[in-house]
């Protein structure tokens, strides 16, 4: 009976050791690194839109959605952000798309 217990105990210890090593390896690879500082807000950016640039400002959410949909139909990624005061909505695009977005928005105003 003692001889039958030894192989089982060795298998269990081997399995637990393997799982612990895999866990440590995953933590080392994907673990949270507390020593890395997260980027802070840019003090020179008054609206704090990050990588996005404002191309238009409208007073209501419906107008903002229409303009955003017009840009998306033209293949330009756009998003809408509400003004901090709640007075308007800003239409935001990536800096490389600013010229194209302004062309699309100006073309739509004459139709």
Radius of gyration equals: 28 Å
Can you list the strand order of the major beta sheet? 1-3-2
What kind of oligomer do you see? single chain
Q: Structural class of the secondary elements?
A: alpha+beta
- Average pLDDT for all residues: 80
Tertiary shape: rod-shaped
**How big a fraction of the residues is strand?**
5-15%
Report low-confidence residues grouped into runs of 5 or more. none
Number of beta strands: 3
What is the helix tally? Answer: 3
> End-to-end distance, in Å?
91 Å
Helix fraction by DSSP (H/I, runs of at least 4): 40-55%
Give the name of the CATH architecture of the domain at 53-109. 2-Layer Sandwich
- CATH class of the domain at 53-109, named Alpha Beta
Q: Note the run of SSEs as H and E.
A: HEHEEH
Considering the protein shown, what is the CATH homologous superfamily of the domain at 53-109? Hypothetical protein rpa1041
Largest sheet: 3 strands, antiparallel
* CATH fold group of the domain at 53-109: Alpha-Beta Plaits
């Amino acid at each position: 009976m003692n001889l039958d217990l030894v192989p089982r105990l060795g298998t269990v210890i081997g399995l637990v050791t393997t799982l612990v090593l895999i866990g440590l390896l995953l933590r080392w690879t994907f673990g949270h690194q507390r020593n890395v500082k997260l980027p802070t807000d840019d003090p020179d950016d008054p609206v704090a839109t990050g990588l996005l640039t404002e191309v238009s400002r409208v007073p209501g959410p419906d107008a903002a959605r229409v303009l955003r949909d017009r840009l998306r139909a033209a293949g330009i990624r756009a998003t809408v952000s509400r003004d901090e005061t709640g007075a308007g909505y800003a239409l935001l695009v990536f800096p490389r798309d600013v010229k194209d977005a302004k062309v699309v928005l100006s073309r739509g105003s004459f139709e």
